Structure prediction request, 259 residues.
Amino acid sequence: MIAIRSEREIGLLREANQIVASVHAALAPLIKPGVTTRALDEVAEEIILSAGATPSFKGYHGYPASTCISIEDEVVHGIPGDREIQEGEIVSVDVGACYKGYHGDAAVTRACGAIDADRQHLLDTTNLALSRAIRAARVDNHLRDIGRAVENTCKEAGLTVVRDFVGHGIGAKMHEDPQIPNFDDGRRGPRLKEGMVLAIEPMVNVGGHKVRVLEDDWTAVTADGKPSAHFEHSVVVRKDGGEILSASAACTWGQVPEA
Ligand code: MF3
Ligand code: CO
Prediction:
């Protein structure tokens, strides 16, 4: 069952997501050579707690941190620690916050310093895929239209879509119905209705789509060791496409204008 949220609930979801957005804005200038992923996680946790929220990820199935930070071939769920980010690397930061009982969830992959053309193409394509998927989150579309938007965008760009992880409904729990594949799984899926709230999160690879999970039981990496990107927004299904809850004025992703 996919929940339909009242405008009051959507207001609370927006507040939670705006806390997430403020974390992303604060972390952006800190993604520099030599910074540890733990340092970024500490800043994120401090902002979430000062806002009167709690980090949604911490303690979730035993997850030990407030953010997931995934570098280079790490796809998602990288655990912050002593690793120092290097010039030329791409870094995905995923943040969740719970405020007044409602969750916010958003992720972005950023460049540390100058990156090569393949990595830039990966970031640009994943951002475009998310932007198109958000546009597809419109009343009377079906769930499949979201996955198709991502898959088609990535195929055209010569990139592959991760199949082992999906987006999700979000609300009073971080993960709610429906699961949102980033590809066409052959089912039309439910019809989208005004007030559904979805966390759309394409994960896209330069090489093959296959991933594996490391010994820490969390970090997902590409099987071939090639780079991967992840962008996510929490959006409300509206008549003209998804209304992004997790964007601030400083937010640079999921909003590619199109002809
Ligand atoms: N954005 C991710 C998700 O939707 C983050 C979850 S990480 C976890 O699944 F640690 F909380 F599992
Ligand atoms: Co999510």
